[in-house]
Amino acid sequence: MQTKMDLNLLVALDALLEECSVTGAADRLRVSEPAMSRTLGRIRKAIGDPVLVRAGHAMQPTPRALEMRDEVREVVRRARAVLAPTGALAPETLERTFTITANDAMVTSVGDHLVSCVEEAAPGVTLRFLAEPAGDHAWLRDGGTDLEMGVLGPLPPEARTERLATDHHVLVMSPGHPLAEGELTAERVAAARHIVTSRRGRTTGPLDEALAGHGLSRRVAVTAPTFAATLLMLVSRHDMAALLPWRQYRRGIRALGLVARELPVPLPPVELAMAWHPRDAADPAHTWLRARVRDSVRAVLGTDTAPDAGQNPRRTPTRSTPAPKAYETEE
User: Fold this and answer.
1) Nearest CA to 193 among 176, 177, 169?
2) Which H helix or E strand runs over 275?
3) Where are the beta strands (DSSP E) in 91-192?
4) How far apart are the C-alpha atoms of 171 and 105, rounded to whole Å?
5) Are both 96-166+271-301 and 169-265 of the same fold?
6) Is 31:19 a contact under the CB 8 Å cutoff?
7) Could you tell me the sign of the dihedral formed by the alpha carbons of 10, 148, 302, 183, in that order?
8) pLDDT tens sequence across 169-220
9) Which of 114, 191, 201, 211 has an alpha carbon 20 to 30 Å from 127's alpha carbon atom?
Protein backbone atom coordinates (compact mmCIF):
# COMPACT_ATOMS: atom_id res chain seq x y z
CA MET A 1 0.00 0.00 0.00
CA GLN A 2 1.29 3.43 -0.88
CA THR A 3 1.82 5.53 2.25
CA LYS A 4 3.67 8.53 0.83
CA MET A 5 2.45 10.83 -1.93
CA ASP A 6 4.26 13.81 -3.42
CA LEU A 7 1.52 16.38 -3.97
CA ASN A 8 3.73 18.15 -6.52
CA LEU A 9 2.81 15.27 -8.82
CA LEU A 10 -0.73 16.68 -8.95
CA VAL A 11 0.55 20.01 -10.20
CA ALA A 12 2.61 18.25 -12.87
CA LEU A 13 -0.32 15.99 -13.78
CA ASP A 14 -2.58 19.03 -14.17
CA ALA A 15 -0.07 20.64 -16.56
CA LEU A 16 0.39 17.41 -18.53
CA LEU A 17 -3.35 16.91 -18.95
CA GLU A 18 -3.81 20.53 -19.98
CA GLU A 19 -0.96 20.60 -22.50
CA CYS A 20 -1.06 16.93 -23.63
CA SER A 21 2.67 17.39 -24.14
CA VAL A 22 5.73 16.80 -21.99
CA THR A 23 7.43 19.78 -23.61
CA GLY A 24 4.42 22.05 -23.09
CA ALA A 25 4.02 20.99 -19.46
CA ALA A 26 7.73 21.55 -18.84
CA ASP A 27 7.53 25.07 -20.30
CA ARG A 28 4.44 25.83 -18.26
CA LEU A 29 6.05 24.77 -14.97
CA ARG A 30 9.49 26.11 -15.95
CA VAL A 31 11.35 22.84 -15.57
CA SER A 32 13.47 20.93 -18.05
CA GLU A 33 11.89 18.47 -20.43
CA PRO A 34 13.89 15.50 -19.00
CA ALA A 35 12.70 16.44 -15.50
CA MET A 36 9.07 16.51 -16.67
CA SER A 37 9.55 13.19 -18.45
CA ARG A 38 10.81 11.64 -15.21
CA THR A 39 7.85 13.13 -13.35
CA LEU A 40 5.47 11.59 -15.88
CA GLY A 41 7.11 8.26 -15.18
CA ARG A 42 6.48 8.68 -11.45
CA ILE A 43 2.84 9.64 -12.11
CA ARG A 44 2.35 6.56 -14.29
CA LYS A 45 3.77 4.36 -11.55
CA ALA A 46 1.68 6.03 -8.84
CA ILE A 47 -1.71 5.66 -10.58
CA GLY A 48 -1.00 2.56 -12.68
CA ASP A 49 -1.95 4.21 -15.97
CA PRO A 50 0.06 5.55 -18.94
CA VAL A 51 -1.79 8.93 -18.68
CA LEU A 52 -0.51 10.10 -22.10
CA VAL A 53 0.12 7.85 -25.08
CA ARG A 54 1.74 8.59 -28.43
CA ALA A 55 -0.68 9.15 -31.36
CA GLY A 56 1.32 10.07 -34.44
CA HIS A 57 3.31 13.21 -33.69
CA ALA A 58 1.12 14.15 -30.72
CA MET A 59 0.17 12.64 -27.37
CA GLN A 60 -3.37 11.78 -26.35
CA PRO A 61 -4.78 11.31 -22.83
CA THR A 62 -5.97 7.85 -21.84
CA PRO A 63 -9.61 7.28 -20.77
CA ARG A 64 -8.46 7.25 -17.13
CA ALA A 65 -6.67 10.56 -17.64
CA LEU A 66 -9.76 12.15 -19.21
CA GLU A 67 -11.85 10.87 -16.32
CA MET A 68 -9.64 12.49 -13.69
CA ARG A 69 -8.71 15.72 -15.56
CA ASP A 70 -11.41 17.98 -14.09
CA GLU A 71 -10.92 16.59 -10.59
CA VAL A 72 -7.16 17.09 -10.75
CA ARG A 73 -7.59 20.69 -11.93
CA GLU A 74 -10.01 21.44 -9.09
CA VAL A 75 -7.77 19.86 -6.45
CA VAL A 76 -4.79 21.91 -7.65
CA ARG A 77 -6.85 25.09 -7.69
CA ARG A 78 -8.12 24.50 -4.17
CA ALA A 79 -4.64 23.67 -2.90
CA ARG A 80 -3.29 26.92 -4.31
CA ALA A 81 -6.12 28.83 -2.68
CA VAL A 82 -5.42 27.19 0.70
CA LEU A 83 -1.71 27.88 0.51
CA ALA A 84 -2.03 31.42 -0.85
CA PRO A 85 -0.78 34.00 1.66
CA THR A 86 -3.35 36.32 3.17
CA GLY A 87 -3.06 40.05 3.06
CA ALA A 88 -1.95 42.31 0.25
CA LEU A 89 -0.64 40.69 -2.92
CA ALA A 90 3.04 41.22 -3.72
CA PRO A 91 3.18 41.07 -7.54
CA GLU A 92 6.97 41.02 -7.59
CA THR A 93 6.91 37.62 -5.86
CA LEU A 94 3.98 36.17 -7.81
CA GLU A 95 4.76 33.12 -9.94
CA ARG A 96 1.80 32.07 -12.04
CA THR A 97 0.62 31.48 -15.59
CA PHE A 98 -2.57 33.23 -16.65
CA THR A 99 -4.39 31.89 -19.71
CA ILE A 100 -6.31 34.56 -21.63
CA THR A 101 -8.51 33.96 -24.67
CA ALA A 102 -8.82 36.86 -27.10
CA ASN A 103 -8.90 37.58 -30.81
CA ASP A 104 -5.86 38.98 -32.57
CA ALA A 105 -7.18 42.55 -32.42
CA MET A 106 -7.11 42.50 -28.61
CA VAL A 107 -3.84 40.57 -28.37
CA THR A 108 -1.92 42.94 -30.64
CA SER A 109 -3.35 46.11 -29.06
CA VAL A 110 -4.33 45.70 -25.41
CA GLY A 111 -2.41 42.44 -25.00
CA ASP A 112 0.89 43.96 -26.09
CA HIS A 113 0.57 46.75 -23.51
CA LEU A 114 -0.56 44.25 -20.87
CA VAL A 115 2.59 42.18 -21.39
CA SER A 116 4.75 45.24 -20.69
CA CYS A 117 2.78 46.11 -17.53
CA VAL A 118 2.99 42.57 -16.18
CA GLU A 119 6.68 42.18 -17.04
CA GLU A 120 7.52 45.34 -15.09
CA ALA A 121 5.41 44.62 -12.00
CA ALA A 122 5.43 40.79 -11.84
CA PRO A 123 8.37 39.25 -13.71
CA GLY A 124 7.40 35.78 -12.45
CA VAL A 125 4.04 35.87 -14.26
CA THR A 126 3.53 34.32 -17.70
CA LEU A 127 0.68 35.41 -19.96
CA ARG A 128 -0.62 32.67 -22.22
CA PHE A 129 -2.84 34.03 -25.00
CA LEU A 130 -5.10 31.59 -26.83
CA ALA A 131 -7.29 32.16 -29.86
CA GLU A 132 -11.00 32.38 -29.18
CA PRO A 133 -12.67 28.96 -29.16
CA ALA A 134 -15.01 28.34 -32.08
CA GLY A 135 -18.45 28.58 -30.50
CA ASP A 136 -17.91 26.68 -27.22
CA HIS A 137 -16.91 28.94 -24.34
CA ALA A 138 -16.84 26.14 -21.75
CA TRP A 139 -13.13 26.84 -21.20
CA LEU A 140 -14.08 29.47 -18.65
CA ARG A 141 -16.17 27.02 -16.66
CA ASP A 142 -13.74 24.10 -16.74
CA GLY A 143 -10.69 26.23 -15.93
CA GLY A 144 -9.06 26.00 -19.33
CA THR A 145 -8.84 29.79 -19.41
CA ASP A 146 -8.60 32.38 -16.64
CA LEU A 147 -9.99 35.35 -18.54
CA GLU A 148 -11.72 36.15 -21.82
CA MET A 149 -11.42 39.61 -23.29
CA GLY A 150 -12.67 41.27 -26.43
CA VAL A 151 -16.06 40.78 -28.08
CA LEU A 152 -17.67 38.17 -25.86
CA GLY A 153 -19.65 35.34 -27.37
CA PRO A 154 -21.78 32.79 -25.48
CA LEU A 155 -20.72 32.45 -21.85
CA PRO A 156 -21.66 30.18 -18.95
CA PRO A 157 -24.62 31.78 -17.13
CA GLU A 158 -22.58 32.15 -13.94
CA ALA A 159 -19.73 34.08 -15.62
CA ARG A 160 -18.87 37.57 -14.37
CA THR A 161 -18.46 40.25 -17.03
CA GLU A 162 -17.22 43.83 -17.14
CA ARG A 163 -17.46 46.30 -19.99
CA LEU A 164 -14.09 47.66 -21.08
CA ALA A 165 -14.57 49.96 -24.08
CA THR A 166 -16.50 50.56 -27.27
CA ASP A 167 -14.82 50.51 -30.68
CA HIS A 168 -16.14 51.17 -34.18
CA HIS A 169 -15.31 49.99 -37.68
CA VAL A 170 -13.64 52.05 -40.36
CA LEU A 171 -12.98 51.28 -44.01
CA VAL A 172 -9.26 50.74 -44.64
CA MET A 173 -7.43 50.69 -47.95
CA SER A 174 -4.06 51.55 -49.50
CA PRO A 175 -3.37 55.20 -50.48
CA GLY A 176 -3.64 54.21 -54.14
CA HIS A 177 -7.14 52.81 -53.83
CA PRO A 178 -9.90 54.82 -55.57
CA LEU A 179 -11.85 55.06 -52.28
CA ALA A 180 -8.94 56.83 -50.59
CA GLU A 181 -10.04 60.09 -52.21
CA GLY A 182 -13.27 61.84 -53.04
CA GLU A 183 -16.72 61.64 -51.56
CA LEU A 184 -17.32 58.27 -49.92
CA THR A 185 -20.85 57.06 -50.67
CA ALA A 186 -22.64 53.80 -50.01
CA GLU A 187 -22.67 53.17 -53.76
CA ARG A 188 -18.88 53.50 -54.01
CA VAL A 189 -18.37 51.24 -51.00
CA ALA A 190 -20.66 48.59 -52.49
CA ALA A 191 -18.87 48.72 -55.85
CA ALA A 192 -15.45 48.05 -54.30
CA ARG A 193 -13.87 44.61 -53.85
CA HIS A 194 -13.65 43.68 -50.17
CA ILE A 195 -11.59 41.55 -47.81
CA VAL A 196 -13.75 40.12 -45.02
CA THR A 197 -12.12 39.15 -41.72
CA SER A 198 -13.66 36.00 -40.27
CA ARG A 199 -11.99 33.10 -38.52
CA ARG A 200 -14.88 30.89 -39.70
CA GLY A 201 -14.71 32.09 -43.30
CA ARG A 202 -18.01 33.96 -43.27
CA THR A 203 -18.54 36.28 -46.23
CA THR A 204 -21.27 38.52 -44.82
CA GLY A 205 -21.52 40.81 -41.82
CA PRO A 206 -22.97 44.09 -40.50
CA LEU A 207 -21.80 46.11 -43.52
CA ASP A 208 -23.85 43.88 -45.81
CA GLU A 209 -26.93 44.49 -43.67
CA ALA A 210 -26.34 48.25 -43.76
CA LEU A 211 -25.85 48.28 -47.53
CA ALA A 212 -28.94 46.12 -48.05
CA GLY A 213 -30.93 48.88 -46.36
CA HIS A 214 -29.95 51.05 -49.33
CA GLY A 215 -30.73 48.34 -51.87
CA LEU A 216 -27.02 47.61 -52.37
CA SER A 217 -24.71 44.62 -52.05
CA ARG A 218 -20.93 44.40 -52.14
CA ARG A 219 -18.41 42.10 -53.79
CA VAL A 220 -16.40 39.98 -51.33
CA ALA A 221 -13.19 38.93 -53.07
CA VAL A 222 -11.50 37.05 -50.22
CA THR A 223 -11.81 36.20 -46.52
CA ALA A 224 -8.93 36.31 -44.04
CA PRO A 225 -8.85 34.53 -40.65
CA THR A 226 -7.39 37.45 -38.65
CA PHE A 227 -7.31 41.23 -38.76
CA ALA A 228 -3.50 41.09 -38.88
CA ALA A 229 -3.68 39.04 -42.08
CA THR A 230 -6.16 41.51 -43.53
CA LEU A 231 -3.83 44.44 -42.77
CA LEU A 232 -0.89 42.80 -44.50
CA MET A 233 -3.01 41.97 -47.54
CA LEU A 234 -4.12 45.59 -47.79
CA VAL A 235 -0.49 46.73 -47.89
CA SER A 236 0.13 44.86 -51.14
CA ARG A 237 -3.39 44.94 -52.60
CA HIS A 238 -4.29 48.34 -54.05
CA ASP A 239 -7.64 47.09 -55.39
CA MET A 240 -9.32 45.99 -52.15
CA ALA A 241 -10.73 47.52 -48.98
CA ALA A 242 -11.66 46.05 -45.60
CA LEU A 243 -13.35 46.86 -42.29
CA LEU A 244 -11.14 47.06 -39.20
CA PRO A 245 -11.84 48.10 -35.59
CA TRP A 246 -10.35 51.60 -35.47
CA ARG A 247 -9.24 52.01 -31.85
CA GLN A 248 -7.57 48.60 -31.75
CA TYR A 249 -5.76 48.96 -35.08
CA ARG A 250 -5.22 52.68 -35.59
CA ARG A 251 -1.51 52.44 -34.74
CA GLY A 252 -0.99 49.59 -37.18
CA ILE A 253 -2.99 51.35 -39.89
CA ARG A 254 -0.87 54.48 -39.55
CA ALA A 255 2.42 52.59 -39.24
CA LEU A 256 1.72 50.72 -42.49
CA GLY A 257 0.77 53.90 -44.32
CA LEU A 258 -2.80 52.79 -44.99
CA VAL A 259 -5.84 55.05 -45.26
CA ALA A 260 -8.79 54.77 -42.87
CA ARG A 261 -12.12 56.43 -43.62
CA GLU A 262 -15.35 56.68 -41.71
CA LEU A 263 -18.16 54.75 -43.37
CA PRO A 264 -21.09 56.55 -45.01
CA VAL A 265 -23.54 54.09 -43.43
CA PRO A 266 -24.00 53.49 -39.68
CA LEU A 267 -22.71 50.21 -38.26
CA PRO A 268 -23.27 48.75 -34.80
CA PRO A 269 -20.61 49.54 -32.19
CA VAL A 270 -18.03 46.93 -31.23
CA GLU A 271 -18.51 46.28 -27.51
CA LEU A 272 -15.36 45.08 -25.74
CA ALA A 273 -15.51 43.39 -22.34
CA MET A 274 -13.80 40.82 -20.16
CA ALA A 275 -15.27 37.75 -18.46
CA TRP A 276 -14.13 35.40 -15.70
CA HIS A 277 -15.54 32.60 -13.59
CA PRO A 278 -16.93 33.39 -10.09
CA ARG A 279 -14.39 31.05 -8.50
CA ASP A 280 -11.69 33.60 -9.41
CA ALA A 281 -13.61 36.68 -8.30
CA ALA A 282 -11.92 36.96 -4.89
CA ASP A 283 -8.53 35.55 -5.90
CA PRO A 284 -5.99 38.36 -5.19
CA ALA A 285 -3.81 37.43 -8.18
CA HIS A 286 -6.75 37.31 -10.55
CA THR A 287 -8.06 40.60 -9.16
CA TRP A 288 -4.63 42.13 -9.81
CA LEU A 289 -4.67 40.81 -13.41
CA ARG A 290 -8.10 42.32 -14.09
CA ALA A 291 -6.87 45.67 -12.82
CA ARG A 292 -3.91 45.51 -15.21
CA VAL A 293 -6.27 44.75 -18.10
CA ARG A 294 -8.27 47.87 -17.22
CA ASP A 295 -5.06 49.93 -17.13
CA SER A 296 -4.01 48.64 -20.55
CA VAL A 297 -7.43 49.29 -22.07
CA ARG A 298 -7.34 52.88 -20.83
CA ALA A 299 -3.81 53.38 -22.15
CA VAL A 300 -4.41 51.86 -25.59
CA LEU A 301 -8.09 52.47 -26.31
CA GLY A 302 -8.78 55.42 -24.06
CA THR A 303 -9.25 58.10 -26.71
CA ASP A 304 -11.58 57.36 -29.59
CA THR A 305 -10.08 59.83 -32.05
CA ALA A 306 -11.46 59.83 -35.58
CA PRO A 307 -9.23 58.80 -38.49
CA ASP A 308 -6.83 61.60 -39.43
CA ALA A 309 -8.73 64.43 -41.03
CA GLY A 310 -5.88 65.20 -43.40
CA GLN A 311 -5.59 61.57 -44.45
CA ASN A 312 -9.28 60.82 -44.68
CA PRO A 313 -11.75 63.11 -46.47
CA ARG A 314 -15.06 63.98 -44.90
CA ARG A 315 -17.60 61.35 -43.97
CA THR A 316 -20.66 61.74 -46.15
CA PRO A 317 -23.81 59.88 -45.09
CA THR A 318 -26.13 58.85 -47.88
CA ARG A 319 -29.44 59.20 -46.15
CA SER A 320 -30.80 59.14 -42.63
CA THR A 321 -30.88 55.61 -41.24
CA PRO A 322 -31.56 54.59 -37.63
CA ALA A 323 -28.40 53.36 -35.94
CA PRO A 324 -28.51 49.57 -35.58
CA LYS A 325 -28.25 47.82 -32.25
CA ALA A 326 -24.89 46.76 -30.87
CA TYR A 327 -23.34 44.01 -32.93
CA GLU A 328 -20.96 41.53 -31.35
CA THR A 329 -18.47 40.84 -34.13
CA GLU A 330 -16.97 42.56 -37.14
CA GLU A 331 -17.83 39.94 -39.69
Assistant:
1) 177
2) strand 270-276
3) 96-101, 125-130, 147-150, 160-167, 169-173
4) 16
5) yes
6) no
7) positive
8) 999 999 999 999 999 999 999 999 999 999 888 999 999 999 999 999 999 9
9) 201
pLDDT in tens, 51-102: 999 888 888 999 999 999 888 888 887 787 777 666 678 899 999 999 999 9
Say whether domain 169-265 belongs to CATH 3.40.640.10: no
Question: How big is the CA angle at 232 (ends 207 and 295), to the nearest 5 degrees?
Answer: 75
| Domain residue limits, the chain | 8-83, 96-166+271-301, 169-265
H/E stretch holding 140: helix 139-142
| Beta bridge partners of residue 96, listed in sequence order | 125
Q: What is the pLDDT of residue 86?
A: 61
Fold classified for 96-166+271-301: D-Maltodextrin-Binding Protein; domain 2 (3.40.190)
Lowest mean pLDDT among 90-94, 166-170, 274-278, 322-326: 322-326
Which residue type is seen at 38?
R
Residues belonging to the chain: 331
The CATH classification number of 8-83 equals 1.10.10.10
**Burial environment of residue 82 by CB neighbours within 10 A (0 to 12, 13 to 18, 19 or more):** exposed
Strand partners, 195: 222, 242
